[in-house]
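Quick one - inputs below.
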Amino acid sequence: MNKLIKPIDLILIAVLLLGGAGFWAYTKYSTESATAVIYIDGEVYEKIELENVNEPYEIELPCEPKASLLIENGSVCFHKAECSDKVCINTGRLTKRGDTAACLPAGVVVTIENGAKSQVDAIVY
Amino acid sequence: MKKKGIFIAAVAFFVLAAVVISDFFYSHNTSADFLAMNTTVSLDVTGFHSKEAVERIKSEIIRLDEKLLSRTKHTAEIYSVNNGKTEISDELKGILEYLKQLEKDSGGAFCTGIAQLTDLWGIGTENKQLPDKEEISAAIKNHEKWQINDNNVILPENVKLDLGAVGKGTACDYAKDILSAHKCKEAVVAVGGSVLLYGSEKYQVGIRNPLGEVNEYCAIIEAAQGCISTSGNYERYFEDENGNRYHHIFDPSTGYPADSGLLSVTVIAESGTASDALSTACFVLGIEKSLALFEKYNADAVFITTDKEIITTFGEFESETITVTNNNYSLGDINE
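Output:
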């Protein structure tokens, strides 16, 4: 009975470890809400938390050719663009972490940071 | 009893601290999105040196485009070669020799010497047009006869090089070397539609729905590390007044957009340059004539036919699997 560590001590250590590990895992894997990050010419132009959007609205971007985004609760998409190919508009709505759309002629990139992860790690096209 | 409590708490603390610290160092994640090579580049890198790796990959992709591969930027070697300079660096020589080999192995279905043809059609630009037959014949004359002799490139008259079909895959190869040098744990690097999967994880990669929006996929490949590229008839095209569609992947032997019964071809290979070149070549060749190439380059492919069948070369014991996620498509058998 004079052993330095008794079974009850091991149980205590295990409980403390589990509690600590649980807290650490919670802080590591809990996701912040989805944020649309808008880059113009490589610089961050604006960040928008998509969960906080109550009413859809449009943002005119200061770029050439002109382009605008439609911001909705949980999603963002290119709405209007004066570029010739319209690839940006054809990209559709971005909703999941890692979703990205770009208007190359206008130098605009929009990407979703945080939030729920997309089902895929990448899309080949 | 108090000392014992402190001892127990200390043991628990140090074990947990060791786990958290090692996780912090080895699972440190850095991501970046930027424009380069006329496309979007997305980097998602995990590892102790992920930040340095991302910075290095970014600068290297920009250098690759501006100093080496672009045929429109005056600072690039390919631009100079197309405008009369013959001497090239060892770096470009290595890339061009590999491309020459891919040209030979594909029987010319992949060809870098068709810049004149690309310019003539102008697909994806404001100058898009359906050229005359004579103009097309002139544009493909001698396109395969460009040569590398030591550190010199010899171009026949009217032949210019266009590395647009492989530049993004080559960028993936450069990224892979940087990730390895920085001992990164895992990464997904997407240079436009060419994707590098790096590390021990299994990744889920969506194949774009050829008949849908850009971010819409119709099947998911589960694959381990390697490079994946897709060539499809939907990315750049125009339609004439009769509704005929002309896309940007040309059959170098005819000078017209390839018509092999496919909507897209996705290739998985060890090298990004190879996966890019093979996806183009296989789109031109069609399923049957492509098969020998996969054996030679230890590659696999997913074909989407105009009948909306998805056909893979995945063997029973290979690590890749595919799941069709869009009801408009069905899984076909390569042996049928």
